[in-house]
């Protein structure tokens, strides 16, 4: 029960952030900003490619950024963000 509440909170957070300019969509843009140390959190879908997960994990450790693996596939993450395409990686900019 607790895990469902946590995932629901994360989904609500993503829905709220998708309306703001602080959310970055896409692998290349997220990794670029991760390398520059501009991100506070990175969200990855459940079926994100292993190479991408490895890159994000590596740069996330260097930048001391929180990596949040989601239990939702990329198609559902795209729907949550109200986009007509699948999304594997989301990045949250620092204030």
How would you describe this protein?
The chain is of the alpha+beta class. It has one domain (2-93): Ribosomal protein L30/S12 (60s Ribosomal Protein L30, Chain: A), CATH 3.30.1330.30. It contains four helices and four strands; from the N terminus they run H-E-H-E-H-E-H-E. The protein has a four-stranded mixed beta sheet with strand order 1-4-2-3, covered by helices on one side. The longest helix has 16 residues, at 2-17.
Percentage of residues in strands: 15-25%
Mean pLDDT: 89
Query: What is the gyration radius calculated from CA atoms?
Result: 12 Å
Order of helices and strands: HEHEHEHE
Specify the number of helices.
4
Strands in their spatial order, largest beta sheet: 1-4-2-3
Taken together, the total number of domains comes to: 1
Major β-sheet annotation: 4 strands, mixed
State the CATH class. Alpha Beta
CATH superfamily: Ribosomal protein L30/S12
What structural class do you assign from the helix and strand content?
Answer: alpha+beta
Number of strands: 4
Unreliable spans? none
| CATH third-tier fold name | 60s Ribosomal Protein L30, Chain: A
């Amino acid at each position: 029960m607790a895990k469902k509440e946590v995932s629901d909170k994360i989904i609500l957070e993503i829905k709220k952030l998708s309306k703001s300019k602080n959310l970055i969509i896409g692998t290349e843009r997220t990794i670029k900003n991760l390398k520059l140390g501009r991100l506070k959190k990175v969200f990855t879908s459940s079926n994100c490619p292993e190479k991408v997960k490895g890159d994000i994990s590596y740069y996330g450790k260097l930048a001391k950024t929180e990596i949040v693996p989601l239990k939702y596939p990329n198609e559902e993450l795209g729907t949550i963000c109200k986009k007509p395409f699948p999304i594997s990686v989301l990045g949250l900019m620092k204030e």
